[in-house]
Fold this protein.
Amino acid sequence: MSQHYPFSLEPLPYAYDALAPNIDARTLEFHHDKHLKTYTENLNKTLEPYPALHSYSLEQLILSVPVLPDSIRTAVRNNAGGVYNHQLYFASMRSPREHNEPTGSLRKAIDVCFGSFDAFWQAFEKAGLSVFGSGYAWLVAECGGTHKLRIDTTPNQNTPLETNVCPLLPMDVWEHAYYLQQQNRRAAYIELFRPLIDWDVIQQRFDSCCQAK
Ligand code: MN3
């Protein structure tokens, strides 16, 4: 993600029906083509009168939120976060697989930090259910030498970048992520999210962000 203003709507990395039946095509189409598009357009509208910010990447904008002018701080947090979080979320999924679990160094870190993959998943599911209103559950890495993993939640479109950790896996638990298909059944959506996680991509994030910090 090395884009700058004007930000464009990044295409989905798969077809609308690629995640079916776990997430149906209509849900995915609305989520990407309406919700992400709106965040992208509103981010550009917010930044348009501020040429000094036009060279900033999404990450730089998010990290700059505390020092931005009052008049745009909330809009940048919501819309840069909205674009960043959704791009990461869509890129974290692939077609559903049975027995979908990570391997390699990420699996080892999960086993060390949570006890087992099942224990991790139970905690992640609980975090997703605990978000009041709209937000995300995250698997993040603390990259200060230990590669310690932990689960966080963020409200609205806030991102874990603000707390100086490496975001590995976002789970969008806004109602718009599941309402068309599941109505108010967030737990059903979370259970169906598990087979969709592209652990190869999450492993790559674990490798690269921990090297960079
Ligand atoms: Mn969303």
In short: Residues 67 and 73 are 8 Å apart (CA to CA). Strands lie at 135-142, 148-155, 166-172.
